[in-house]
Amino acid sequence: MDSSEKELIANLKSPRHREKAFQLLVKTYQERLYWHVRKIVMNHDDADDILQNVYIKVWKNVDTFREDSTLFTWLFRIATNESLSFLQKQRRHPILSMNEVSDYLTDSLESDVYFDGDEIQKKLQLAIIKLPEKQRIVFNMKYFDEMKYEEMSEILKTSVGALKASFHFAVKKIEEYLDEDHK
Amino acid sequence: MKEKDENIENLFGKLKNGQPFRVPEGYFETFAERLQVRIEEEELPTKKRTLFFYLKPALSMAASIALVMLLVYVPIKKFFPSTQGYLTQQKSTIDSVDKVSVLPVPVDLFSYFSESQFVSAVADMKVIDSETLSPDSLGDYIAANYTDFDIIANN
User: Fold this and answer.
1) Predicted model pTM
2) What is the number of CB-based contacts under 8 A between chain A and chain B?
3) Which candidate in A41, A54, A75, A114 is best for mutational testing of the B interface (most B CBs within 10 A)?
4) Residue-wise DSSP of chain A
């Protein structure tokens, strides 16, 4: 944690400087958080709602931030949890959960006016949607965001070994999905 | 495993750089402002929670009780005005009885009445007319109020 981050945290916890510090926090991380959330929920409107909820949670709970991780890790953890909670709410029957989430995400992708991908990009996204939640998040963070396993480990509270295995399985499944589609 | 991962990297190499998603124009520029509006909306109910907010249930209950009392008490007082007087009278009678019952015994009647008051009260008493006590009426009275057993027992 560098000195500027320490100062930002101190200002966030000070009632006098809180509002200004919060604006800086929003500006600094909004894009990275948005794309992280967007890749989990696919749809822009859902991502926008979730991102606002993430920052509202941060605003309300900044006093409880224990500073045992960086702000970036803390924010990404909240964003990941909020996104997963959002997907949980789309489930009506726990037994059909995975298929339901997958169907919901496919519909979201199909109806999203802010998706400009070509046919190959759409196929890749549909292949990612078919993955289990954890593998999907790991794949996105590693493949698109090029995040280090150590960072991912802190955010997702999972061991580096487990994350590597998740990524490996995710890649394998995507490859199989695309191979099937090519046949 | 590493080789496989490299293959997929090559397979999607060109996809990785192209971002298929986009956002509405000016989305990130206006996000902070929209967020601020939502935060203010969320905080509004908590800011309005003054002392009145916490006393509101108790005040509502007190107002309800007052209303019920008003609806019951006022019509009773209006339509049965004597009720209250009767109750007060009953209460004072009970109080006076209580006072008498706690008086020391024997009771000195002349400490409560003057002699002249006592004499006039006796004079006002209804004197039994001896003519009304005929043997026949006396017999009827005894027949109505006493059994044979009572008469024999008293003799």
Assistant:
1) 0.61
2) 69
3) A114
4) --HHHHHHHHHHHSTTTHHHHHHHHHHHHHHHHHHHHHHHH--HHHHHHHHHHHHHHHHHHGGG--SSS-HHHHHHHHHHHHHHHHHHHT-S-GGGHHHHHHHHHHHHHHH-TTB---HHHHHHHHHHHTS-HHHHHHHIIIIIS---HHHHHHHHT--HHHHHHHHHHHHHHHHHHHHHHH-
pLDDT tens column, A21-69: 999 999 999 999 999 999 999 889 999 999 999 999 999 999 888 888 8
Q: Please tell me the distance from the alpha carbon of residue A76 to that of residue A90, in angstroms, as a whole number.
A: 21
Contact A143 B12 (CB under 8 A): yes
Cβ contacts (< 8 Å) between B42 and chain A: which residues? 56
Cβ atoms A93, A53 nearer than 8 A: no
The string over B131-155, giving b where at least 16 C-beta atoms fall within 10 Å of a residue's C-beta and e elsewhere, is eeeeeeeeeeeeeeeeeeeeeeeee
CB contact under 8 A, B35 and A56: yes
The token pair at B46 is: 């908590």
Q: Are A145 and A79 in contact (CB under 8 A)?
A: no
